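RECORD TYPE: inverse folding
INPUT: structure tokens
STRUCTURE:
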């Protein structure tokens, strides 16, 4: 009996394993290596291939042939398009100071095809750091890779993970945010990744006054898109209502002026955060109210916990939200034209009487 039971268990486990193997997606079939690069990969497909550099370190010369042929360059470039100076003679490792020096030198190679993008990087904070002598500042290959470059528009989560190489602490906060979770865990392609707010190549220092003043415009790219916001049941008037209130008007007037950052009125990021943005729905009304009150108190000394209640938030006045304000608006929309039309009629009638008296 025990033997039969054991046999049944073995058969059952075998059946489960067979089902699991059947459901496992098949590995991608190897793609054919183009003849134009086959000669180079004949040697460089060797994982043991490496060279000693001038600083004594070792740099791997291995190139995964499948990574290359599946990359965006695989069907468009040959090795010597980027490694032109190695076409005739391979360099000695002693001529390369270090692995990092080689990466920085290769930065210039990309501009042959991507000149417009290259020139934008020259205006970025990363290039300024590189120019100042910080060799660790990222160059093209640090973000895009070298032989395995993928289309960043197809794999948006990959963009943020690239940034995490240097900005790990920021990325961790982003990954916990409403945007980061939706992208990393749910694969939602609608939410912003790092480059959507900071741009890809012309990245500016985020601590400047200009960046803070421009943050409502950045947020409005998504939060002002009615079709996109309707998809998630979010109001698309948040940017519009912000720009219509005191803070928004003041920020609009200040944009372009060289005011110190601490004198600039609040923008989106002051209330909602930057990388650690959470959904107000998940935080709850009381928690959100307390958070906004704390922000208000930074400028409005002595502001009570109920201080934000005087603000309409991002709601447009309606019979449901701020009905008194809505009714006053309706009254003035009727009353003011009525008064103006009445005054015009009075003037016209007066002129008519004057003309009759003559």
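DESIGNED SEQUENCE:
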């Amino acid at each position: 009996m025990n033997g039969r039971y054991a046999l049944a268990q073995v058969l059952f486990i075998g059946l489960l394993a067979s089902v699991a193997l059947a459901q496992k997606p098949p590995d991608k079939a190897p793609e054919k290596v183009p003849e134009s690069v086959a000669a180079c990969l004949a040697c460089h497909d060797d994982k043991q291939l490496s060279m000693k550099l001038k600083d004594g370190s070792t740099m791997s010369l291995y190139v995964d042939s499948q990574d290359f042929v599946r990359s965006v360059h695989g069907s468009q470039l040959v090795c010597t398009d980027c490694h032109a100076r190695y076409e005739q003679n391979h360099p000695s490792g002693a001529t390369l100071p270090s692995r990092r020096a080689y990466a920085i030198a290769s930065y210039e190679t990309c501009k042959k095809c991507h000149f417009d993008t290259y020139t934008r990087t020259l205006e970025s904070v990363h290039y300024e750091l590189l120019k100042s002598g910080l060799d660790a500042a990222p160059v093209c290959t640090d973000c895009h890779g070298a032989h395995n470059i993928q289309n960043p528009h197809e794999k948006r989560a990959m963009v943020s993970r690239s940034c995490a190489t240097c900005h790990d602490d920021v990325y961790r906060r982003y990954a916990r945010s409403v945007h980061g979770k939706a992208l990393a865990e749910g694969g939602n392609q609608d939410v912003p990744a790092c480059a959507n707010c900071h741009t890809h190549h012309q990245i500016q220092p985020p601590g400047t006054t200009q960046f803070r003043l421009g943050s409502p415009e950045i947020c409005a790219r998504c939060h002002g898109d009615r079709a996109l916001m309707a998809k998630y049941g979010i109001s698309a008037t948040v940017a519009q209502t912000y720009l219509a209130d005191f803070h928004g008007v003041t920020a609009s007037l200040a944009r372009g002026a060289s005011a110190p950052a601490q004198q600039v009125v609040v923008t989106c990021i002051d209330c909602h955060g930057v990388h650690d943005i959470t959904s107000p729905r998940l935080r709850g009304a009381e928690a959100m109210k307390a958070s906004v009150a704390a922000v208000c108190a930074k400028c409005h000394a002595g502001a009570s916990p109920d201080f934000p209640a005087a603000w309409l938030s991002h709601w447009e006045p309606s019979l449901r939200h701020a009905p008194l304000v809505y009714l006053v608006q309706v009254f003035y929309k009727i009353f003011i034209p009525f008064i103006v039309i009445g005054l015009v009629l009075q003037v016209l009638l007066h002129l008519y009487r004057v003309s009759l008296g003559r």
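NOTES: Residues 323-357 form the longest helix (35 residues).
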